[in-house]
Amino acid sequence: MSATATQATADVSRKTVFEILLALCACHFLNDALTSLLPSIYPILKDSLGLSFAQIGLITLDYQLTASLLQPLVGHYTDRRSRPYALAVGMMFMLSGIVALSVARTFDAILVAGALVGSGSSVFHPESSRVVRMASGGRFGLAQSLFQLGGNAGLAAGPLLAAFIVLPRGQRSIAGLSIVALIGIVVLAAVGRWVTKNFVPKSASSHAAVQHAGLPGKKVVVAIAVLIALCFSKFIYLACLSSYYTFYLIQTFHVSVQSSQLYLFVFLGAVAAGTIAGGPIGDRIGRKSVIWWSILGVLPFTLALPFANLIWTAILSVIIGLGLASAFPAIIVYAQELVPGRVGMISGLFFGFAFGIGGLGAAVLGELADRTSIRFVYLVCSFLPAIGLLAALLPNIEPGGVHERARAIEHTAPSESAALE
């Protein structure tokens, strides 16, 4: 490696590259906005194509499977073979899916379009998480929080695109949103050039002394299983709140639809604030502490929520949203440090699981609400944060050498992970 290339890599590793982080945050917004567009236009597709509810369910299964199950596989592949321009390729899949969706006139064509949209998302999340870590300058939590904030905003924007663009103009107007994907391709191609320029391969011998996290394999597996269980509790409870909060307020307190939407907006604002806060706090006090308190710490508030009046319901929902949302950036970074050199695979695993379990949870809770009541659903879900007790099983990896080795690995070239085998 040339002296110039060495210096470029060293310079990047010493500072947080906010230009790259903001670019990926913006592209996360674009990606997730386009992804959430599909379920938002189900009424159009059902009416124009005469679809049954069973077919609507298959469309959801189609794009959620490609968007969730493929993520760890994509991450595993790119961990071994660096592909700086994979991000732009992923957005090309998204572009193809959007165009296909605008012209689809059969159920099978919708399935193909949904698979393309899901595939684009499955490439974007694991690869962008790795680049986020490269650009973090060691501030891993802050970088991950900024990245996830873009995704949260994008998920909220998808229904707005459907309401103000697609619904008034019809299915063909979806093609106009291809400009969004084109913008993403251009930005992500620039990010790929930055990666190529600043993170060049070193020889495998230069990393002979760098090892994986100093934990037995069994402990790593147990820790990953615990983190997945914690994500289960977080995303199922958030699915309960975000999907059925307005119905709960209307049925319990007889508020108007407009008022319920305002309360939902306040809750979603708290979720956004928690997302941006969780990472930097984890950088300062440790990821395990944030994971522990953000999930188990909200248990008293979730238990109180089904018995609170309207004002206290609003207050408790804000506290719960702040707490639970702060967990995910810390979980992602903690998991990356458990298995250093496998940033793409680990990020794909957790983002894919989050996407899949959230949709599955909303469906199961809806069925439970039909059979019982919304209030009963809130009572059942109020115990979910108790799963946070499992955080006691997480190893203390941050003090000392393991944490520093993880940082050392992530400041090196992305294509070097194969040398860490």
Distance between the termini: 21 Å
CATH-level-4 superfamily name of the largest domain: MFS general substrate transporter like domains
Rg calc: 22 Å
What is the N-to-C succession of helices and strands? HHHHHHHHHHHHHHHHHH
DSSP summary, beta strand count: 0
CATH architecture call of the largest domain = Up-down Bundle
The 3D shape can be described as globular
* CATH class bucket of the largest domain: Mainly Alpha
Q: Do you know the CATH topology of the largest domain? A: Growth Hormone, Chain: A
Poorly predicted residue ranges: 1-12, 202-212, 400-421
Please describe the structure with a list of short key phrases separated by commas or semicolons.
2 domains, mainly alpha, 421 residues, disordered C terminus, Growth Hormone, Chain: A, disordered N terminus
What does this molecule look like?
The protein has 421 residues and is mainly α. The protein has two domains: 3-200, MFS general substrate transporter like domains (Growth Hormone, Chain: A, Up-down Bundle); 217-413, Up-down Bundle (Growth Hormone, Chain: A). The chain contains 18 helices and no strands. It has helices spanning 3-14, 18-40, 42-49, 53-68, 70-80, 86-103, 107-134, 140-169, 178-198, 217-253, 257-285, 287-295, 299-304, 310-325, 327-338, 343-371, 374-381, 401-410. The longest helix is centred in the middle third of the chain and has 37 residues, at 217-253. The protein is globular. The protein starts with a helix and ends in an 11-residue tail after the last helix.
